[in-house]
Amino acid sequence: QVQLAESGGGLVQTGHSLRLSCAASGGTFGNYAMGWFRQGPGEEREFVAAIGRSVLSTSYADSVKGRFTISRDNAKNTVYLQMNSLKPEDTAVYYCAARRSEWSNDYYVNPNEYGYWGQGTQVTVSS
What we know:
By secondary structure, the protein is an all-beta fold. Helices cover 0% and strands 50% of the residues. It is globular and about 40 Å long.
């Protein structure tokens, strides 16, 4: 059973940056593909970024491509989301998710494909 804990959210101005972290415990982190999702007020949870067991296997939503970067450090059992050039429309609760993955290059963009979720961290971008 994997437990996930996000941190790094906060209030920033448009154009600024934040780095979210998601620390995993209770499992062999290297066996899990990871993802970041977000949910704005009154909206459904949406895909932001995903990374496979391999750090070279990543995917991004079109809305964040070129601004956000997902990475993982298996030695620290942590996945990161570096968010640059933030916009007000990036305001949401950000969740990290994990699922066991047999193949190192596979990543997952559908929230239903993940079995483990963190509690979320609020990101607010003011205009």
